[in-house]
């Protein structure tokens, strides 16, 4: 039993250590070729043209000339776009998106202001700016476009419309950016058209930039901010803290995105518009930037070239993403045990469909999982109780063979065989449940369904740590008492006291540390996750009580 107790402690610590190792996004190499070309070996650097596909600075003379021209045009016009899903503001300076507020989500808990998905510190950082690798045209941030509309308003009777921005160089080059909107969708279709009316051919790569700040929205310690991508059919994400240098990726690039825990800004090159590479730029301050670099474009004299993208700025919700048919639903990924978490999420949504409260839905889901694992848990607890009965005999053997380790082990195993006790019987059933624990851990920490979802009393946001406000700042905890977390720790303590032990004082102290450690670990976890753990502990206490009282 002593070995079982130590193993249980080690396994408990391993659960959390393994979680952060498994689910922490890996740090990719400086230059990664997601899909090797025909000749280079796997892991070789990206092709030279892809690595070098980064926009050089615009010449001072060219930029100054553009700025002087724009200064004569007066104030910059902004165009408001209204759909069922969002209210957006586009600006003629760059022909880009300045603001997009999501009408179905609030900025803060209890607030009335819609969720703003664009967070930048300067106009040059607005998303959807374009640049050119060989500097054939100035970057769009330096250009004043002309919009063809003053406003765009979509209704059920007018479900689609477009907004175009046009800029001409005066030397035969014209750049047109056309956005197409859909009444009941977060999707925006972007078409970039380059018209060459000069007498010289143009050969260059278009760079479409995604930029965003995605400020930290809560004190949830599992919150994510970073870069997402789907290349060669493999989904990868990189947390902002893992990016130390510029990184370039090649292969069959399906899409790239910037994201926080619940929202994302994505660009999907359409099939006829392959990308040469995708670049993650080392964050400056809190600003995230990703560049999608097109394959080389050849536009002959009197010719034109169109590049098409599908854009998405909205929630990371599979129910919204999957119908788009862009593979963006893969951005909702719960890590290594995603295959288990997705069905559990479906069950959670099902329960919420008639309970209309995700707190009660979590409780019901916990009860369901506990029922499914009841036989395994029962077997584990019974094995631990059987081991407790043999503890005095094991103690005598330890005393008798204290100088002969090999003989001691032989006698202990013979004792177990005589009484038909499996020394690993208390741990193996628990090990089988670990994947489900990981899946629930990820699900309840990252599912957008829990964002601003209330439960009872002071628990008004299941995606945030629970705090009962008392008007006083507490070190490490903040403004309030983590009542739910403290109850969880207390339930763990009670469960430990009810669990059969050998009476060994060292083991007892070791096991009593667990509730303290877990309580501190869970203080800044989402209250939905803490609620699951608390309810699971209470159910385990009930099961342990039943076994202690009625099982011989």
Notes on the protein architecture:
With 552 residues, this protein is α+β, with helices and mostly antiparallel strands. It has two domains: 2-20 and 344-550, no CATH class; 78-215 and 223-332, Distorted Sandwich (Beta-galactosidase, Chain A, domain 5), CATH 2.70.98. It has twelve helices and 24 strands. It has helices at 2-23, 48-51, 60-71, 318-321, 338-355, 358-372, 374-400, 405-418, 428-446, 483-498, 505-522, 527-550, and strands at residues 31-33, 78-82, 86-91, 96-106, 114-116, 130-132, 146-147, 151-153, 160-168, 173-182, 187-196, 202-204, 206-212, 225-231, 234-239, 247-250, 253-260, 263-269, 275-284, 287-294, 297-299, 303-315, 468-474, 478-481. Strands 7-9-10-11-22-18-17-14-15 form a nine-stranded antiparallel sheet, with no helix packed on it. It is elongated and about 100 Å long. Residues 1-65 have low confidence and may be disordered.
Shape: elongated
What Rg is obtained from the alpha carbons, in whole angstroms? 29 Å
How many structurally independent domains? 2
Total strands: the figure is: 24
| Strand arrangement in the largest pleated sheet | 7-9-10-11-22-18-17-14-15
The CATH architecture of the largest domain: Distorted Sandwich
End-to-end CA span:
18 Å
CATH fold name of the largest domain, please? Beta-galactosidase, Chain A, domain 5
CATH class of the largest domain: Mainly Beta
* Helical percentage: 25-40%
pLDDT averaged residue by residue: 80
In what range is the share of β-strand residues?
25-35%
């Amino acid at each position: 039993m002593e070995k079982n107790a130590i193993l249980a402690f080690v396994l408990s610590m391993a659960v959390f250590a393994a979680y952060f190792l498994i689910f922490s996004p890996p740090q990719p190499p400086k230059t990664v070729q997601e899909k090797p070309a025909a000749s280079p070996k796997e892991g070789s650097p990206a092709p030279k043209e892809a690595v070098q596909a980064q926009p050089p600075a615009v010449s001072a003379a060219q930029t100054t000339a553009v700025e002087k021209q724009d200064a004569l045009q007066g104030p910059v016009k902004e165009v408001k776009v209204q759909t069922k899903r969002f209210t957006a503001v586009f600006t003629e300076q760059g022909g880009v998106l300045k603001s997009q507020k999501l009408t179905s989500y609030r900025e803060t808990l209890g607030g009335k202001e819609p969720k703003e998905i664009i967070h930048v510190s300067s106009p040059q950082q607005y998303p959807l700016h374009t640049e050119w690798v060989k500097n054939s045209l100035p970057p769009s941030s330096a250009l004043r476009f002309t919009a063809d509309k003053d406003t765009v308003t979509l209704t059920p009777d007018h479900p689609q419309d477009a907004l175009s921005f046009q800029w001409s160089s005066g030397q035969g080059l014209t750049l047109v950016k056309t956005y197409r909107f859909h009444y009941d969708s977060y999707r925006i279709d972007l078409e970039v058209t380059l018209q060459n009316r000069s007498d010289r051919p143009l050969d260059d790569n278009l760079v479409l930039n995604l930029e965003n700040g995605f400020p930290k929205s809560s004190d949830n310690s599992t919150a994510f901010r970073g870069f997402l991508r789907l290349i060669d059919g493999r989904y990868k994400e990189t947390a902002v803290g893992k990016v130390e240098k510029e990184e370039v990726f090649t292969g069959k690039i399906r899409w790239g995105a910037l994201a926080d825990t619940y929202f994302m800004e994505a660009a999907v090159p359409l099939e006829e518009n392959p990308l040469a590479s995708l670049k993650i730029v080392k964050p400056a301050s809190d600003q995230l930037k990703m560049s999608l670099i097109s394959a080389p474009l050849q536009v002959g004299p009197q010719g034109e070239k169109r590049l098409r993208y599908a854009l998405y700025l909205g929630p990371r919700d599979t129910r919204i993403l999957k119908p788009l048919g862009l593979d963006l639903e893969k951005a909702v990924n719960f890590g290594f045990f995603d295959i288990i978490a997705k069905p559990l999420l479906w069950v959670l949504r099902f329960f919420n469909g008639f309970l209309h409260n995700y707190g009660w839905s979590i409780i019901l889901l916990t009860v369901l999982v506990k029922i499914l694992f009841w036989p395994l848990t029962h077997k584990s607890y019974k094995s631990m109780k059987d081991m407790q009965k043999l503890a005095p005999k094991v103690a005598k053997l330890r005393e008798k063979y204290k100088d002969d380790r090999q003989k001691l082990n032989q006698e202990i195993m013979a004792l177990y065989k005589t009484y038909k006790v499996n020394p690993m019987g208390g741990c193996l059933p628990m090990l089988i449940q670990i994947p489900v624990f990981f899946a629930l851990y990820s699900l309840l920490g990252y599912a957008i369904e829990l964002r601003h979802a209330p439960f009872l009393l002071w628990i008004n946001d299941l995606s945030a740590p629970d705090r009962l406000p008392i008007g006083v700042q507490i070190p490490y905890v903040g403004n309030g008492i983590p009542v739910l977390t403290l109850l969880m720790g207390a339930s763990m303590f009670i469960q430990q006291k009810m669990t059969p032990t050998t009476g060994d004082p060292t083991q007892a102290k070791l096991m009593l540390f667990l509730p303290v450690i877990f309580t501190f670990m869970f203080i800044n976890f989402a209250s939905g996750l803490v609620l699951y753990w608390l309810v699971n502990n209470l159910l385990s206490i009930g099961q342990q009580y039943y076994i202690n009282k009625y099982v011989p």
